[in-house]
Amino acid sequence: ILNVEQSPQSLHVQEGDSTNFTCSFPSSNFYALHWYRWETAKSPEALFVMTLNGDEKKKGRISATLNTKEGYSYLYIKGSQPEDSATYLCAFDSNYQLIWGAGTKLIIKP
Amino acid sequence: EPEVTQTPSHQVTQMGQEVILRCVPISNHLYFYWYRQILGQKVEFLVSFYNNEISEKSEIFDDQFSVERPDGSNFTLKIRSTKLEDSAMYFCASTPRTGGQETQYFGPGTRLLVL
């Protein structure tokens, strides 16, 4: 059974501070690793699709890295803002389905 | 910007009743998916659909479930005889092209409560 783990489960960060969290996934049969941002009552919003070992992608203050050999990805947020408060989900792409982590709930304290 | 829509946003039903959850994928997308999230648990893949047939399905997607694309825009998930454990948030997603490595665009979900 393929398993995707995210840590920490939740995180409180002071506004302006930077933070990061982890997604661990199987290192075999890898097609891609997806990061999503999900606010309550809204659609999960795609952040990144990462495919190559060593990939680093950036979108504004958010960036992500990928290590497929050891099976982990980090998501970084620089200079956290209140609007960054959300649950961040990663999903392991096994070609035709996404296998999800439980998410990291990020709360930004003003 | 085009988006995936889902109706209804909430549905309450009695155990044993049939429910149909509706999704309108982004118009030029070809691959469609259903996922669910039971409260407090991880999001789970149910089924993928392409060219009017199921591409992949999970163990969860048993004979009680079916999917259909009845016209050029809607993509539906039917649960024939709902059980209490079917209570969950159901998400629809679509992608423009085949297979993995594609960003899946999600709808806002339908929260189903089975009593």
Structure overview:
The complex is a heterodimer of chains A (110) and B (115). Helix content of chain A is 0%, strand content 55%. Chain A has strands spanning 5-7, 10-14, 19-24, 32-38, 45-50, 56-59, 62-67, 72-77, 86-93, 98-100, 104-109. In chain A, the strands form two sheets. In chain A, strands 2, 4, 5, 9, 10 and 11 form a six-stranded mixed β-sheet that branches. In chain A, strand 4 and strand 5 form a beta hairpin. The radius of gyration of chain A is 13 Å and the shape is globular. The termini of chain A are far apart. The mean pLDDT of chain A is 94. In chain B, 0% of the residues lie in helices and 50% in strands. Chain B contains no helices and eleven strands. Chain B has strands spanning 5-7, 10-13, 19-24, 31-37, 43-50, 53-57, 65-68, 75-79, 88-95, 105-106, 110-114. In chain B, a hairpin with a 5-residue loop joins strand 4 and strand 5 (43-50). Chain A binds chain B through residues 4, 31-32, 34, 36, 41-46, 49, 51, 89, 91, 93-103, and chain B through 3-4, 33, 35, 41-45, 48, 55-56, 58, 91, 99-109.
SSE map:
The complex is a heterodimer of chains A (110) and B (115).
Chain A: E1 5-7, E2 10-14, E3 19-24, E4 32-38, E5 45-50, E6 56-59, E7 62-67, E8 72-77, E9 86-93, E10 98-100, E11 104-109
Parallel strand pairs in A: 2-11
Antiparallel strand pairs in A: 1-3, 3-8, 4-5, 4-9, 6-7, 7-8, 9-10, 9-11
Chain B: E1 5-7, E2 10-13, E3 19-24, E4 31-37, E5 43-50, E6 53-57, E7 65-68, E8 75-79, E9 88-95, E10 105-106, E11 110-114
Parallel strand pairs in B: 2-11
Antiparallel strand pairs in B: 1-3, 3-8, 4-5, 4-9, 5-6, 7-8, 9-10, 9-11
In short, what is this structure?
Chain A is mostly beta strands and 110 residues long. Chain A has strands at residues 5-7, 10-14, 19-24, 32-38, 45-50, 56-59, 62-67, 72-77, 86-93, 98-100, 104-109. In chain B, β7 and β8 form a beta hairpin.
